[in-house]
Give the backbone structure.
Amino acid sequence: MLTSFWYILAALLFAAYAFIHYLILRGLGRLSYTTNPELLSVSIIVAARNEEESIGRCLHALVKQNYPKDLYEIIIVNDRSTDATAEIVMSMRKKFPFIKLIGIERLSPDLPPKKFALDEGIRNAKNDVLIFTDADSYPPQQWLREMVKAFTPEVGVVAGYSPFEWKATASFEHRWGDRFLRYEELKNTICAAAGVGLKSAYMCTGRNFAYRRAVFTEVGGFTKIKQSLSGDDDLFIQVVQRDTEWEIRYMTSVDSVVVTEPPVTLEEFVSQRRRHFSAGKYYPRRMKLIFAAAHAFNAIALFTLIIFPLYGVFICACKLGIDWFVMYRGTRMFGNRELLPLFAPLELMFVLYNLIIGPLGYLGRFEWKGTRS
């Protein structure tokens, strides 16, 4: 009786898993769109807290954009930094006067720190199109042109891919760590892009993100999502999708990709991911059910492999076949083909990571840059 129940449960969850990935493929196939030939005036906004090691490189990438200098400004919001972040920005500003520095000395009583910093940057921006990246991220020279091309009149939000920078380290564990970070980010990107294609945008990354000031005003800024320490990107795009008629675009061109620094230590990685997962508490019920079904199937597949090996091998083989096909399609759009030969062990790491780290985002408290959730 138990065996039959287990088989039926595994089959039902597999059917749900297969259907979810069918929707992902369908969404990816709907990402084509027209482009805007005009060069728009834009404001790049970067929130920085104790970023002296990376802000210089970030600024050099931003000032070297292949875009008319009179059509964009760079706003660095120095969020209570205690290091040399402000001094580095001011030094760069002497040579590039279109760099602005805004200082924050206190916490907001209403908004979480990151959202408050971004809100201050938006208030001080002079242009309608607002483009965001992080202080430890490095856009390519054509980035602004690519992002602006997506802003046809009906488009209010544009999101893009932001993989972790590849570190050619010698240690075995760091090489696998870097590969896993790139694999995990690529899987998230594939799903996020598919959501946009299905007109059900639910996820993006704030280090490669843009929207019109009119969109920010229409949804009331961050007021609807201020309950979460994170979520200035994914929760915001959900509000736009739900409450406005603006269209959303997801970029797939190579020139729109923004690389970012990976976490240095395991502790930093876990803390970062707990913060990301914590925003999931505020996702719509429909999305929570989809995630629950996918993760439940992954857990059942692993346990079936242990309890009923023959059936487990069949279930896992079917799962990996679906995952590989979606990943292959994703690498054709976003690159990272070098990950495909390592697909099986990376997917196993991804499943275990979600089953172990994922629940931690819903439990207990965590710290991010000196602020506790």
Q: What stands out?
A: The chain has twelve helices and eleven strands. The chain has a mean pLDDT of 91. Residues 218 and 369 are 30 Å apart (CA to CA). The longest strand covers residues 72-79.
